[in-house]
Amino acid sequence: MAEGVTVAEGVEPEWELPPIFCPLDPAVNPARRRVERRAIDCIDQWGLCADARERVRVIGTRSADFYARFAPDAGEDGLLAAALWVYWGFAFDDARCDTGFYRGRPSEFVPMAARIQRALESPVATADGDVFARSLQDIAARFHRAGTPVQFQRFVAAHRAWLVGVAWQIANEARGHMPGLEDYVTMRLHSAGGEPTFAMLEIANGSEVAAAEMDSPIVRALTEMAILVAALDNDGHSLLRELEGHTVQNIYSVLQSETGGPFEEALQAAACLRDRVLLQFLRLRDRVRPRLSEPGRCYVDGLAHGIRGNAEWGLKVPRYGKDGISDDESPGIAWAEKPLDDSREPLPIPSIAWWWDV
Q1: Interatomic CA distance for residues 227 and 218, integer angstroms
Q2: Burial level of 78, CB count in 10 A (0-12/13-18/19+)?
Q3: Which stretches in the chain have pLDDT values below 50?
Q4: Kind of pairing between the strands at 335-336 and 20-21
């Protein structure tokens, strides 16, 4: 793994993250507080948290507030189902992906993840005592009640892609490998969890998009761009906590590894990359939205809400504080009035350059 930059605990970094450019309107579901209370009751009933500190950490993800920004018009039960998976996903990520026994152990992570995936797919409860499998089956039952078979199977496929991306990330860590930019972007499109998060939009909103629209190149491009913008924003939100004493795979460490330049240049280059993707998202959305059905427009609007909502949530959620628990805002991040890079040229990353050709 490349050496990268670390920040000692209690020491303020000498660099600042560029402001976030996001000319999208904020919105939030008015039911978020009720959904949060209902979700916490479920988390306690599941026994998802091993101890009081872990419970504070999971509840501190503010996942109900998070998804209330993705689906501001969703009904309460649909929003609850989606928010529960977000709480579950953060808990699973902390316990079995980012830290804990499976970190750097791909040969053991993969079979565990496959069993978790099967718990989601199985229509009946299993005898497995795994708390994550049992709670995921409860969420799946809620998805079945709130959504359609098509919507559920789209989520199942997205969930599988997420676990594959996480396995790739863990494999890199196990062999001390820093991916190049092409591989990192491809991996991050999956490992960030954006696919299942956006796949829940249909379930939460109660609106199924026809396959001819959902699977069209332009809607696929919009989905992937929304995932990447949110993933890169999260790389910024979590940067300080992640760099306290260890090296990680994020857009900044990848860019610095490729160029060999100072960390400050990587910060600027990452913001330029992110802004170019967001501007292309906005151009494509404005072009295609008038031609979409009502469910299609609802979905594309949800992608935009998700970009803005994820950025807002990440600025203040305790998860991205220094200890992942304290209720303080992530330092050094502000809003920008204009993009750092407004080029219309495709990014020189082959696996995503097609976004500029649809």
Answers
A1: 14
A2: buried
A3: 1-3, 7-11, 245, 326-332
A4: parallel
Residue 37 in contact with residue 83, Cβ under 8 Å? no
Return the bridge partners of 335, or none: 20
Q: Of 191, 213, 197, give the one whose Cα is nearest residue 300.
A: 213
Q: What is the pLDDT of residue 333?
A: 61
> Are 303 and 222 in contact, with CB atoms under 8 Å apart?
yes
CATH of domain 20-356: 1.10.600.10
- Give residue 128's pLDDT: 67
Best CA proximity match to 234, nearest among 280, 276, 261, 194 = 194
Name which of 291, 84, 91, 124 is nearest 204 in CA terms. 84
User: Structural domain boundaries of the chain?
Assistant: 20-356
Which one, of 282, 303, 300, lies nearest residue 291 by Cα? Answer: 300
pLDDT value at residue 330: 47
